[in-house]
Amino acid sequence: xxxxxxxxxxxxxxxxxxxxxxxxxxxxxxxxxxxxxxxxxxxxxxxxxxxxxxxxxxxxxxxxxxxxxxxxxxxxxxxxxxxxxxxxxxxxxxxxxxxxxxxxxxxxxxxxxxxxxxxxxxxxxxxxxxxxxxxxxxxxxxxxxxxxxxxxxxxxxxxxxxxxxxxxxxxxxxxxxxxxxxxxxxxxxxxxxxxxxxxxxxxxxxxxxxxxxxxxxxxxxxxxxxxxxxxxxxxxxxxxxxxxxxxxxxxxxxxxxxxxxxxxxxxxxxxxxxxxxxxxxxxxxxxxxxxxxxxxxxxxxxxxxxxxxxxxxxxxxxxxxxxxxxxxxxxxxxxxxxxxxxxxxxxxxxxxxxxxxxxxxxxxxxxxxxxxxxxxxxxxxxxxxxxxxxxxx
Length: 393
What we know:
Elements: H1 3-7, H2 17-20, H3 25-48, E1 50-63, E2 68-71, E3 76-81, E4 88-89, E5 94-98, H4 101-175, H5 181-253, E6 255-257, E7 262-267, E8 275-276, E9 281-287, E10 292-299, E11 311-316, H6 321-324, E12 327-334, E13 343-350, E14 354-357, E15 360-363, E16 369-380, H7 381-389
Antiparallel strand pairs: 1-10, 1-16, 2-9, 3-5, 3-8, 4-7, 5-6, 7-9, 10-13, 11-12, 11-16, 12-13, 14-15
Helix pairs in contact: 4-5
């Protein structure tokens, strides 16, 4: 020591670094070994700790199986929409109504035309019946007149025969001088008169036949015209009825109805004045009573990892995960092609129709949004990290 140090108090004696700071080498070495042991244990645990690789996608709850497509049989403008997606419908329930004002005007016009034609046809039928009666009466009258004329001819012929025989007999008596010439001339005149009367009677029969045939022909022609008009009116009535039935059928088709009871999966009916084409699919209905399935939309980059039978967990957005947990499910099918750009449809079958916990339930309903995690591979956490880091290396 220096002389100055000899003069300082003991408490103020100079100290070295070892006297002020403790020796940390031993604790640091111990901590390092502990960290190394922890990392080693963690690495070993990571290599054996089970881990599930998953594909996450979102989707909706849908009824399983094929859906029934609802098509419009009639095109036109929508007057009223009475349905929306995920709505329950009854068989025959009206989903929408098309604008039918033009059809109603056409029906009104056809009904007026049909009433007029039926009235005209009734009048034609009445005239036809009346003409048929007149024709029958005229035929009977002609037969009676002709019969009377023929009787007159027979009488005139008989009178001619008698007068001729009288003239002949008196002529013979006059040649023998039994009767005067004047009496023979009288018989001769009587014979000539009888011959003329016979000729007039025969001519009367011919004239009566001609008049009857003329009247009958006139009535028959008129009757044929009336019958032709009635037949044309009958054809027009049938045509109007056919057209009216077609309009009534189209009016019935203007009501777009549900063909069966079920739930509406989707619909393109949105608003009034929307134009639809004949045969256009406007709604898709899932029949009632079918189990639910979940449709997930998986990207085309991940769909190759999925297989039928893989397990999945579903988080139903309408059922709180904190309260009800998740719903297990199994992959049922994967669409063969994309249903939307860059997306494949994956169908999953839930293992239950509701989530439950602590006596509380949350039922699945059509249209509920779902977030699903499909377990694609069972591995370890370390292998998972190595797979993730491998492309970067």
